[in-house]
Amino acid sequence: MKQILSDTTTRLRSLYSRHQKAFPILSFIAGFAWDSWTLNRIDRLSDNLILLAYILCAGLLIVINHLYTFKKVRHPIWDKFAPYLSDARQFFFGGLFSSYVVFYFKSAALTKNWLFVLFLLVLLVSNEFIKDRLQALKIQIYYFYLALFSFFIFFLPVVFKTLSTWFFIASGLLSGGFTLGMVLFLGHKTESDLYPWLKQFIRPLGIFYLLFNLLYFMNIIPPVPLSLKHAGIYHSVKKEGTRYRLTLSDKPWYQFYKTYDDPFYYTQKDCVYCFSAVFAPTDLHTRIYHRWQWYNPFTEQWEASDNLSYAIHGGRERGYRGYTYKKHLRSGDWRVDILNDQDQILGRVSFQAVKDTLDNRRMHTIYR
After folding, report:
1. pLDDT tens readout for residues 114-160
2. What angle do CA 190, 194, 195 make, to 5 degrees?
3. How far apart are CA 258 and CA 175, in angstroms?
4. Rounded Cα gap, residues 204 and 221, in angstroms
5. C-alpha triplet 275, 243, 277: angle, nearest 5°
6. How many other CB atoms are found less than 10 A from the CB of residue 318?
7. What is the CATH number of the domain that holds 289?
8. CB–CB of 324/233 below 8 Å?
9. What does pTM read for this prediction?
10. Would you say 236 and 250 are in contact if contact means Cβ atoms under 8 Å apart?
C-alpha cells in the first residue's frame, strides 16, 4: 500500500512539473466552473457561511504574513508554512471573487451592470495571474476591503429579510470598520507611530467607499440579492392552482427562441400583460414595479405610461411570479422596466405593439 501511494505521489509530482505553467489556468477555469454550477442561491446558509469563513481566513493570513515578515511571530510551525501563506491567501480571495462574479452576474440586467461584474472579474483574474504584485500589504488590505464590502451588500438584506439603501451604506461602513481595525492591530504590533501608518490606508479606503456609493446610486451595481428569472409580454395571464397560464400568439417555426409576444398584435379590446418571476431570499418581503414606457417618435423620447406593482414573498427557487396589465395600448415601441422598491432595475422587456384588424389570431398557452 505504501508503495502504491509513493508511486502515485511521484507520478503526480512529475505531471505537475511537466504542466506547471498550465495548472494556474486550468485550476482557474475549473474553480470558476465549479462555483457557477454549485452556487445556485444567494441566500443559502451553507454558502454564506463558507464565504464568511473565506473572508476570515483571508484576513487572518494577511495578519499572520505581515507579523511573520516583521518577526513578531516566532514558532517552528510558521517557518514551515510561511512559504505557502501567499498561496493560501490567493486561494481564499479567488474563492470569494469567483462567487461574487456568479452572484452579481445573475442579478445584472443592463449593460451598465456588467461594468461592475467586469470589475469583479478583473479582481478575480488579477488575483490568479499577477500574484507577485499582490504581495504588498496595501494591495492585500484593499482586496480584503472590497471582498468584505461585496459580501455585506447582499448578506445584510438576506439576514434582515428586507431591502434598504441604509443596508448598502452600512455595508461600506462595517467593511471599513473591520478593515481599519485590522490595520490598527498590525500598526500597533509593527509600527512606532500609528498616525501616519493609519493615514496611508484611510484615504484610499474612503475613495473606494465613495466610488461604490456612486456606482450604487447610478444603478451600476447589480441589485443583489434579487435576480430576474423570467419576464415577458403576453395576451393573457391567469393563475391556475400553483401555476400561471400564459397566452401568446403562434410564431413561425424559425422564431422558436421567442418566449413572449414581440411583436404584440392587438385589437382595440385587447389588454397587454407583463409577467415576471423574481427570485428573492427566503422570507424577504418587498414590492416589484413594472414601469411601462412608450417611445414617442416625434420627440424621440421614452414617455412614462404606467408604474404598476405587486408584492413578492421570497423563497421560491424559480422566482416569485406576478404580473401587471395595461389597457388602451398605442402602436409603436414599448418597454417595461422591472424594478425593486429601491428603483434598481432588475430587467427590461421590449416589444413592438402592432394594431391588428384580425380577431381570430391563433394562440397557444404555456405554464410557469
Report:
1. 999 999 999 988 887 776 667 789 999 999 999 999 999 999 999 99
2. 155
3. 43
4. 20
5. 35
6. 10
7. 2.60.40.1930
8. no
9. 0.88
10. no
d(CA 104, CA 117): 6
Q: How many CB atoms lie within 10 A of CB 234?
A: 25
Residue type for position 315 = G
Asked if 44 and 110 count as a contact pair (C-beta separation under 8 A), the reply is no
Q: Are residues 244 and 295 in the same domain?
A: yes
Average pLDDT over residues 222-231: 95
Query: Under 8 Å CB-to-CB from 212, ≥6 apart: which residues?
Result: 149, 172, 221
Whether residue 93 is found in the same domain as residue 148: yes
Among 97, 104, 84, 83, residue whose Cα is nearest residue 127: 97
Q: How far is CA 110 from CA 113, 212, 232, in A?
A: 5, 18, 16
Q: Looking at the structure, do residues 157 and 260 belong to the same domain, yes or no?
A: no
Which grid cell sits at 102?
Answer: 456568479
Give the domain extent around 53. 21-217
Overall number of domains in the chain: 2
Question: Do residues 357 and 317 lie in contact, with contact meaning Cβ atoms separated by under 8 Å?
Answer: no
